[in-house]
Specification:
about 325 residues, alpha/beta
């Protein structure tokens, strides 16, 4: 098979009910572009029969392939693995739950032909999302843009088309704690957004829990911003200044004949200062933990095999 013009990467983790419909809509959408394409399902340690369904799709259509990982390396790890194995001149990232419509890919590709290196999909609306999810998503992007020097577009996810030049740049960035949408924005290049209506899940339930959302947001902020460290410094200055003013107050009360409060006020001050110090140490520890992760230089993923139609091989390492 000749090198495809378009590669589509879709990380899969326990999406058995969605795969057949996803494959059908992807094929129908990509065929309207009239370019050679490949679709890489990245199996992220599924245990619900998703692999068997994907193999059925690949057996019928050799343009679909499976990259199996040895366990679940997270959504960003699965997407990274797909980027490493994709060979197209343009690469599309799309989730496997059909909330991002495959029918938008031709429009993304058309904007790419106009000269844009990155064409990202902007969520104009989000169907069946809770108010909490909408609220936190809205303010996270704004907080991120304030706290970093990365102009990450608001209301976007990983659904986007990237030129091969951008993909090669991303492949050089091997940090453990990843936020691909921010990394793409950091690389620069010519970028533009395309609005779309985000649907609810086609089947199943979300795998992105509140704990994962918080961890993902924390990884993004600490990977691209030193504002938390600066907050620690500002807090230290504030506490020190407050302690100085309180000391002046105590001296004035003492020489003015007033009675200085006893151990209660002293305990409150010591507790406050100690708490501030612990917060600062905690922030420093968060960064130190990331340094520790990086120096171990563990692989971002471990690929088991790469299935291309009826042929199984491992063409590239992890």
């Amino acid at each position: 098979m000749s090198c495809p013009t378009i590669s589509v990467i879709t990380p899969i983790w326990n999406e058995r009910e969605c795969i057949e419909e996803l494959a059908r809509r992807l094929a129908a959408s990509l065929e309207t572009i009239d370019q050679a394409f490949e679709v890489i399902f990245v199996d992220n340690g599924s245990d619900d029969g998703s692999v068997e369904v994907m193999r059925g799709v690949c057996a019928r259509d050799p343009r679909f392939k499976i990259l199996r990982l040895s366990r679940n390396f997270g959504h960003q790890g699965g997407a990274t693995a797909g980027l490493d194995f994709a060979s197209g001149a343009a690469v599309v990232l799309i989730d496997g739950d059909l909330q991002d419509p495959p029918e938008l890919i031709p429009e993304l590709y058309q904007r790419h032909l106009e000269g844009y290196d990155v064409v990202y999909a902007v969520r104009a609306s989000r169907e069946k999302e809770t108010w909490f999810k909408l609220f936190t998503a809205k303010w996270f992007y704004r907080l991120f843009r304030w706290a970093t020097d990365v102009d990450m577009p608001a209301d976007t996810g990983d659904f986007r088309l990237m030129d091969r030049t951008v993909v090669e740049a991303l492949k050089k960035m091997r940090e453990q704690h990843r936020m691909l949408r921010a990394m793409v924005a950091w690389t620069g290049f010519r970028q533009i957004g395309v609005p779309y209506e985000r649907a609810g899940r086609f089947a199943g339930f979300t795998k992105f829990s509140l704990r994962k959302m918080v961890r993902f947001a924390t990884d993004g902020l600490t990977s691209f911003s030193t504002v938390p460290l600066r907050l620690a410094s500002w807090m230290g200055i504030f506490v020190s200044f407050g302690s100085f003013l309180y000391g002046l107050y105590a001296v004035v009360r003492h020489f003015g004949g007033g009675t200085v409060e006893g151990w209660t006020s002293l305990a409150v001050v010591i507790s406050f200062v100690g708490g501030a110090q612990l917060i600062c140490v905690g922030i420093l520890g968060e960064y130190l933990g990331r340094v520790y992760d990086e120096v171990k230089q563990r692989p971002l993923y471990i690929a088991v095999d790469f299935e291309d139609g009826c042929e199984t091989s491992l063409r590239k390492g992890s």
